[in-house]
């Protein structure tokens, strides 16, 4: 999407509050999928982030990066209505964030299913409908058609009746995405959805999410430690570190200057072809398996 700076704001990668690049809605523009205003989340005296203003447009792909404990998962839980903001406001598709809202699809931080779990792939995807509905169950035929369509959309039709615990990590992840998308949400929240997938499956799962946001204009908030598999898809990065943050296109946030300032220690960011390589000089950047050289 095209972003313009709101009047009075500085460039996207400058000072903290000033770094915020808020898309300015054009006349007649649609309601943002996510709108945060002066948002703060704290646990007691510990402020994870504050002063966060962010509009995410329908169909926009936002990657949330940052070290362990920076508040990425907490950000998703706040958007889900599970954690209240300690200051400011949040709206999802023009309405207050609330638990169980069908406007949000959620792929939680990954766990494998127990191999003995007596749940078929289609049952798992069906929970995505039930989780948002109270009272009478969805009528049988409609429900089945909807589940079949959701399974087909992620290429999981071939194992619709398999027990989920028997499926590979990549297959399970497709099902989680089908479950999250079955209500046709305005926003898809994904917490490290590529974790433990091989390169081919990382590509397949991220392409699936990318296609969805292009075709159905689902906004995507994608928490990851690895930006490279999704670099070509990302419109903006929200980078959280120790209470500070930067928001902007990857080229403006993933730079030596910005990351060094955020981490408060020298960080070298290199471009290697179409990959971004981050070289941390100490143990502050925890994005990979190594302590001193981290490949994002
Ligand atoms: N309900 C809670 N009460 C108190 N502290 C919490 C709560 N939930 C999370 N925290 C703390 O907030 C911090 C941020 O946690 P969060 O899970 O959001 O981090 P994260 O960025 O997702 O990290 P990771 O990369 O390890 O998944 C952590 O220090 C965590 O211990
Ligand atoms: Mg997390």
Give the SSE layout.
Blueprint (H helix, E strand, L loop, with lengths): L33 E10 L2 E11 L4 E5 L6 H8 L7 E6 L2 E2 L7 E4 L13 H10 L9 H14 L15 H13 L5 E5 L7 H18 L2 E5 L12 E6 L2 E5 L1 H4 L2 H8 L3 E6 L2 E6 L16
Parallel strand pairs: 3-8, 3-9, 6-7, 7-8
Antiparallel strand pairs: 1-2, 1-4, 4-5, 9-10, 11-12
Helix pairs in contact: 2-3, 2-4, 3-4, 4-5
This protein binds adenosine-5'-triphosphate and magnesium ion.
The site of adenosine-5'-triphosphate has 10 residues, from helix 1.
Key terms:
binds magnesium ion, disordered C terminus, binds adenosine-5'-triphosphate, single chain, Rossmann fold, disordered N terminus, six-stranded mixed beta sheet, 25% helix, 296 residues, four-stranded antiparallel beta sheet, alpha/beta
Descriptive report:
This protein is of the alpha/beta class and 296 residues long. Among the domains are: 17-112 and 183-249, 3-Layer(aba) Sandwich (Rossmann fold); 255-296, no CATH class. It is 25% helix and 24% strand. It is built from 7 helices and 12 strands. The strands form 3 sheets. It has a 6-stranded mixed β-sheet, with helices on both faces. A 4-stranded antiparallel β-sheet has the order 2-1-4-5, with helices on one face. A hairpin with a 2-residue loop joins β9 and β10. α3 packs across α4. It is globular. It starts with 33 loop residues before the first strand and ends in a 16-residue tail after the last strand. The protein binds adenosine-5'-triphosphate and magnesium ion.
């Amino acid at each position: 999407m095209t972003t313009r700076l709101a009047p009075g704001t500085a460039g996207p990668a400058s000072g903290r509050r000033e770094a915020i690049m808020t898309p300015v809605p054009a006349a007649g523009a649609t309601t943002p999928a996510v709108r945060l205003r002066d948002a703060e989340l704290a646990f007691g005296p510990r402020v994870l982030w504050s002063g966060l203003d962010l509009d995410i447009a329908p169909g926009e792909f936002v990657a949330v990066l940052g070290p362990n404990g920076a508040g990425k998962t907490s950000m998703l839980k706040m958007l889900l209505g599970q954690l209240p903001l300690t200051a400011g406001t949040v709206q999802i598709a023009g309405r207050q964030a609330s638990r169980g809202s069908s406007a949000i699809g959620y792929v939680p931080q990954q766990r494998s299913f127990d191999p003995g779990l007596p749940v078929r792939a289609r049952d798992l995807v069906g929970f995505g409908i039930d989780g948002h509905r109270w009272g009478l169950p969805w009528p049988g035929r409609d429900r089945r058609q909807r589940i079949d369509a959701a399974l087909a959309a992620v290429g999981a039709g071939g194992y619709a009746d398999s027990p989920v615990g028997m499926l590979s990590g990549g297959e399970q992840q497709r099902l989680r995405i089908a479950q999250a998308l079955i209500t046709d949400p305005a926003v898809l929240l994904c917490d490290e959805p590529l974790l433990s997938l091989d390169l081919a499956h990382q590509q397949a799962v991220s392409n699936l999410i990318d296609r969805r946001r292009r075709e159905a204009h689902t906004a995507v908030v994608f928490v990851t430690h690895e930006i490279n598999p999704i670099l070509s898809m990302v419109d903006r990065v929200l980078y959280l570190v120790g209470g500070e943050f930067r928001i902007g296109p990857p080229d403006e946030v993933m730079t030596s200057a910005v990351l060094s300032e955020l981490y408060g220690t020298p960080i070298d960011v290199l471009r290697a072809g179409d990959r971004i390589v981050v070289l941390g000089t100490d143990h502050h950047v925890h994005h990979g398996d190594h302590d001193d050289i981290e490949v994002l």
